[in-house]
Amino acid sequence: MTEILDGKKLRDKIFAGLKTKLDRMSEKPTLAVILAGNDPASQIYVRNKKKTAENLGINSIVIEYPADVTETELLAKISELNNDKKISAILVQLPLPKQIDKFRIIDAILPQKDVDGLTPYNLGKLFAGEQPYVYPCTPKGILLLLDEYGINPAEKHVVVIGRSNLVGKPVAQMLLQRNATVTMCHSHTTNLPDITKTADIVVSAVGKNIIGEKMLKSNCVVVDVGIYRDETGKVRGDVDFEGVSNIAAYISPVPGGVGPMTIASLMLNTVELFERNKQSL
Ligand code: NAP
């Protein structure tokens, strides 16, 4: 019987703990979110982050810019937020409008306020095997979900599909640090089913339906990070959930798996940065 890796349930448990902690704090963290352009999915994500933060007792401000915003304007705002003692955490919602160099923008965030853990400082610390200020939200959420179900990646073969800075690369590093043997795959991997067939754990972060039951070995763990809408508008993951349920020991659903864990990690990171910055900034 396949067990569901229930991200909503764990998110609610994490939120209950965070709410209790925040209720006891006299001063609250503040999360600042920069939203540039009018991507409808980004607008929904940002609205949800703000609402979630406020429900927990975290202050949240959203700074919106039109699609023709300049890099200079964004850099000036980040500098202002970096220097504002009231701001605990800064998030720049991606994707940014096409005229903006996202690396320049992310690089400008003070690492101590980089709630996504995506600045070169924090990613560099992670890749060097040192402690970043915070771990990137989706990879952190995946590890929390595995831990919750007692799935220890040590000595396991983990196949990560997708090599983005946001998900694939950092989750592979975090799994390496947990003593997994990690294989990374991407769009130029020619023999994907041969590789996934040898995996104890598959983490798929692609955004296309690419994983079927024939690609997996019995009793493996499948973490589905992908999100996309099919031709009918339905939200889907990378994995054929019905088919894979016949063979996997654990599977994370879409929606309700990694998505809720990403937002839980964002809230955890905001509180962690607030507590650390209070002592050092
Ligand atoms: P991304 O930057 O677009 O990366 C996608 C990766 O998939 C790339 O490395 C690409 O390879 C690889 N790929 C594409 N086609 C492939 C194929 N046929 N076989 C194997 N690999 C293939 O995306 P991302 O930001 O990492 O996000 C990945 C997915 O996760 C998206 O659906 C996104 O919406 C979702 N996501 C979900 C959450 C959540 O909270 N649930 C959070 C973040 C992202 P190349 O490098 O060779 O192009």
What would you note in describing this structure?
This protein is α/β, with parallel strands linked by helices. It has 2 domains: 26-112, 3-Layer(aba) Sandwich (Rossmann fold); 137-259, Rossmann fold (3-Layer(aba) Sandwich), CATH 3.40.50.720. The protein contains 10 helices and 11 strands. A 6-stranded parallel sheet has the order 1-11-8-7-5-6. Helix 2 (40-56) links the parallel strand 2 (30-36) and strand 3 (59-65). The protein starts with a strand and ends with a helix. The model has no long low-confidence stretch (mean pLDDT 97). The protein binds NADP nicotinamide-adenine-dinucleotide phosphate (NAP). Residues 138, 161-164, 166-168, 185-189, 192, 205-208, 210, 225-228, 258-259, 262 line the site of NADP nicotinamide-adenine-dinucleotide phosphate.
Question: How would you describe this structure in keywords?
Answer:
Rossmann fold; 6-stranded parallel sheet; 3-stranded parallel sheet
- Which architecture of the largest domain per CATH? 3-Layer(aba) Sandwich
What binds here, in terms of ligands, is: NADP nicotinamide-adenine-dinucleotide phosphate
User: What is Rg?
Assistant: 19 Å
Give the tally of β-strands: 11
Largest sheet: 6 strands, parallel
Mean pLDDT: 97
CATH superfamily of the largest domain: NAD(P)-binding Rossmann-like Domain
Compute the number of structural domains: 2
Strand content: 15-25%
What is the fold-level CATH name, i.e. the topology of the largest domain?
A: Rossmann fold
- Structural class by helix and strand composition: alpha/beta
Tell me, what is the CATH class of the largest domain?
Alpha Beta
Number of helices: 10
Provide the helix percentage. Answer: 40-55%
Order of helices and strands: EHEHEHEHHHEHEHEEEEHEH
Contiguous uncertain segments of 5+ residues: none
| Gap from first CA to last CA | 50 Å
Basic shape: globular
**Strand line-up across the major sheet:** 1-11-8-7-5-6
